[in-house]
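INFO batch 0412 | record 1 of 1 | parsing
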Amino acid sequence: MKLVKHLSIFAFVGTLSPIALAHVGLEQPKAVAGSYHKLTFKIGHGCEGTGTHTVKVSLPETAMGAKPMPKAGWKIDTTTSPLSKPYTSHGKNIDKDVREVTWSGGLLPDAYYDEFSIQVKLTDTPGKIYFKVTQLCEKGRWDWVEIPAEGQSAKGLKAPAPGLEVEAKATQEHQH
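INFO prediction complete | emitting tokens
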């Protein structure tokens, strides 16, 4: 009886694996409001069985001061745009910031996965933040840009944008 139960669990988990690997996701899907955070986007497959040569991440204004991590064999380009609401960083007023990071020129074969990282300072406001990701391959592309409606789960979406749950800072009691 126990063996059958365990086999059933393995069979169920096995049916989930292709779905779980089929999307671009964040290594750490939760972070603390107002913190510096490393966004690591996991690319688990190519397009139509071919390798990925370009990964572009669009950043919302709630992810500030983006600094992408270099990858051997890949070129990094950033796009800076004016902000709708300036912010202060290290005593300086910031009115334009990095809104897109693109890695290109490398090749990630379909049979492998890799990670692409960006360090950001997160908003002080708790809530869900989404990052639209475009993946270009030797044949085809994936636009991971679908954002669920309020109260909707991302599970039913074909190409969901990776989401980060920004949690409130823990309150600290005064100690002596």
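INFO post-check: Residues 2-21 form the longest helix (20 residues).
INFO record closed
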